[in-house]
Design brief:
4-stranded parallel β-sheet; Aldehyde Dehydrogenase, Chain A, domain 1; 7-stranded parallel β-sheet; 15 helices; 419 residues; Aldehyde Dehydrogenase, Chain A, domain 2; 2 domains; globular; homodimer; alpha/beta
């Protein structure tokens, strides 16, 4: 079985590689036409997609899946329309392929140009949200790469229809359908084979919970970009505008809790703790946030639970937060370096030197100065499309758009130059 | 033993992390002063370095090490002076840290800046050349990262002295000595522990033979940049200037054979085979190159051996080459895509459309048009320093200089912005 599955995955990867050669040399016009056709076809197929999704949802409920997970799986007309619009929006974005990254004439007269080119074949391993299927396929297509989609078994019927519809549309625009392929998902081994297909697949991106991401990072021999886990901190400095700090903490924690850029931990400078801790504790309680705090927070409110190191390390993704008083910005930096997942940290301060110290001292993909952690997002940053948020330092760090899905090649032109 | 070694490696990585925080915020002036001090100290310590190296060389010869490997290990006054100059040359290069990669004001008034920052802790795993020790330490220091050096056991005595001298110089310039550390090399497990130290080490770069690189790529959980293997092709098109083609083939194959950018395979368009194959065969024979060729090459010269697919896949690193006649540029592209390691390919042609087709069609880090493959090199490209040549597509592709040893962070400044 496993060797059959290997052949299935390798076969798909080889077809993707062949298809990617045509895609790599396709003009922007052809790619954009394929995206527009795919968006229109998805809207036209709404009933089929929702019907297939109904079967996935029924099966998930029958299997006892929690309702919040079922909700991520569920599609309706509005959700299909939303991801179809996402696909056509990508057609409007500039084409990253062909961009000259740097160029010069070398002392010996060689003309050196570094040009942006497609990655080739990208594997996506993700969980139950079927909108990721359309998003990822569209972003990879625009970036000139073929994609192998390995979604969740729970969304298999939805994904099959979405991929079938997009493949037909892509083919109608004159590109090989095999630039978008769905891998079987009933067996975990198909994901493993994808991660191990070094030489056939150029990049694997896991999107989902911490467990999925850890597995991919540990098992993959194909280069990986780690995404998503966000144990994000807000540090309220002694020189903070405390009204602003209150708004930012409440927004970062409560505006949307299930996302990676939500705040999970609050650090407050001791000099403002007497004033700020009672205020922020009351405000968070008003939003039904459970606080795991140090003794100062417990003294401010009897409902605060004592915080352990485990709490400081936890990405709650819920109405919960850990909280601690620190003695200085350097203490805050030390805490962040110890517990952060390297996604986003925020500082609230009126002093630019302190902001600069915090920015240089923490080691994260994004640092917000006097702004909510919630702004770390490809859409907010103006990238137009986002395939995930990288929390590693290699290749891409922070929100990843089209550019991050490409690589470069050096073209060197001479007149018979030899060494 | 293995768990002791784990503690040794993890302890070194933690010290490197702490030291890297000071290094990350050091000014260019401090870093350059440390590099100049290190270069001077290496020259001053020449006798000690050469004496330690003599012991390494004697032990290697006693162990029956082949002379070409011993030569790579061997240091003399001139070689020490050469790598010391390399270290001081890096002081002259611009500092990549702090470069603003992009910046804009978002529609909501947030000020977004993507800034180049250090990688943090870089692990180098390499073989017997002790000059790599000084090179890698200097490049990482300038790029603001601490380095963990895991060299060959055969060079342990040389590496110990080089690292000791550089650490003292770095400390004298006011930086923590622990930004440069040598890991024990007598046990293979220290390399394994380094590759598995995800979270403590940000990047591992293997430099050496294909076997070493494959092991690191397969076993590492720390992100890796694959370097070095070069099965480079020269394609002589029907529209080539055949005198130019002859010069380029001979140069690419024979000017230096043990390097990754030497040519290993020759493809000749059928339309010029009658004229070119006998000429190139004779010229390569004059340089004592053994040819593994197809029937056309065998017909041209009785000394040509028949080429197998294994030959086409081989990086000889010696006076040997595989050779084949192809029917078209597309045939050449198909051959290259099948057998190349993705390092460097060259085309010799007078037709720009053909050059463009080849450039887009092959999938390699560098493509030379009418120039020798030997030009793929950080020094030739004007990077000033090179830590290796990446043959993967993630993060860096082609020669890697200081910029490729860094990552970026997004700094976002607001005035109390919330979503």
């Amino acid at each position: 079985m496993s060797s059959d599955l290997r052949e299935v995955v390798h076969g798909a990867a080889r077809r993707a590689r062949t298809a990617s050669i045509d895609l790599a040399t396709a003009t922007r016009g052809t790619k954009d036409a394929a995206l527009v056709a795919a968006a229109e076809a998805l809207v036209a197929a709404t009933d089929r997609i929702v019907a297939a999704n109904d079967e996935d949802v029924t099966a998930a409920r029958d299997a006892g899946t929690p309702e919040n997970v079922v909700d991520r799986l569920r599609l309706d007309t509005a959700r299909v329309a939303a991801f179809a619009t996402g696909v056509s929006d990508i057609a409007v974005l500039p084409d990253p392929i062909g961009e000259v990254v740097r160029g010069s004439v070398l002392p010996n007269g060689l003309r050196l140009t570094q040009v942006r080119v497609p990655m080739g074949v990208i594997g996506m391993i993700y969980e139950g949200r079927p909108n990721v299927t359309a998003d990822a396929a569209a972003i990879c297509l625009k970036a000139g790469s073929a994609v192998l989609l390995r979604g969740s078994a729970s969304a298999a019927r939805s994904n099959e229809v979405i991929v079938e519809v997009m493949r037909e549309a892509v083919a109608s625009a004159g590109l090989p359908a095999d630039v978008i392929q769905l891998l079987p998902s009933e067996d975990r081994a198909s994901a493993t084979e994808l991660m191990k297909a070094r030489g056939l697949v150029d990049l694997v991106i896991p999107r989902g919970g911490a467990g999925l991401i850890r597995t991919v990072v540990e098992e993959s021999t194909v280069p990986v970009i780690e995404t998503g886990t966000g144990n994000c901190h807000v540090y309220v400095d002694e020189d903070a505008d405390l009204d602003m700090a209150l708004d930012i903490v409440v927004n970062a924690k409560t505006q949307r809790t299930s996302v990676c850029n939500a705040a999970e931990s609050l650090l407050v400078h001791r000099a403002v703790a007497d004033e700020f801790v009672p205020r922020v504790t009351a405000a968070l309680r008003e939003h039904d946030v459970l606080i795991h705090g140090d003794p100062t927070f417990i003294a401010a409110d009897a409902s605060v639970l004592p915080a352990s190191d485990d709490d400081y390390a936890t990405e709650y993704l819920d109405l919960e937060i850990s909280a601690r008083v620190v003695d200085s910005v350097d203490d805050a930096i030390t805490h962040v370096r110890r517990f952060s997942s390297g996604h986003t940290e925020a500082i609230v301060t009126g002093t630019s030197a302190t902001a600069r110290r915090f920015t240089l001292g923490v080691d994260s993909a994004a640092v917000m100065v006097n702004a909510s952690t919630r702004f770390t997002d490809g859409g907010e940053f103006g990238f137009g499309a986002e395939i995930g948020i990288s929390t590693q330092k290699l290749h891409a760090r922070g929100p990843m758009g089209l550019t991050e899905m490409t690589t470069t090649t050096y073209v060197v032109e001479g007149d018979g130059h030899v060494r």
